[in-house]
């Protein structure tokens, strides 16, 4: 399947909402039970890109949305500002075709270039496919929260995985340059 990675835009919100809706209703990657509205997804999108985090779309040859990925704050306390959390969602027809791996590689590159030093994955349902994707892109397992969520009539574990970006912990970051300016205080 042919696809193109590009910056996501406000025009993508209906497609992003649809992909996320399917994941909320049928999957365990999100612990939301009720899918958010387009208006809510637009607010979330604006908050993420407003903080200069990357938000990437994967579009098919026909222009239709196949998936998306973004980075966001893991926590909003100042000491966490060097770490981002990744999120990737794919349309059902796009799964298993390498689109997730391409989105993850692009997200890692963009976050590294922005100056982030660590990326964390919080994998709802400890999904084997998501764990495999993260392992293939350099993440390591750092923790398992057993029974962290309850959805679809069962208890779900949550896997935590982490990947070093750029210089990681080998050098001190510059607090006067992004992302050092995030949540400073």
UniProtKB/TrEMBL annotation:
Domain of life the protein comes from: Bacteria
Q: Where is the signal peptide?
A: none
Q: What InterPro entries does the database record attribute to this sequence?
A: Acyl_CoA_acyltransferase (IPR016181), GNAT_dom (IPR000182)
Q: Which residues form the N-acetyltransferase domain?
A: 3-166
Q: Which GO terms describe its molecular function?
A: acyltransferase activity, transferring groups other than amino-acyl groups
Which Pfam families does UniProt cross-reference here? Acetyltransf_4
> Under what name is this protein listed?
N-acetyltransferase family protein
What phylogenetic lineage does the species belong to?
Bacteria, Pseudomonadati, Pseudomonadota, Alphaproteobacteria, Hyphomicrobiales
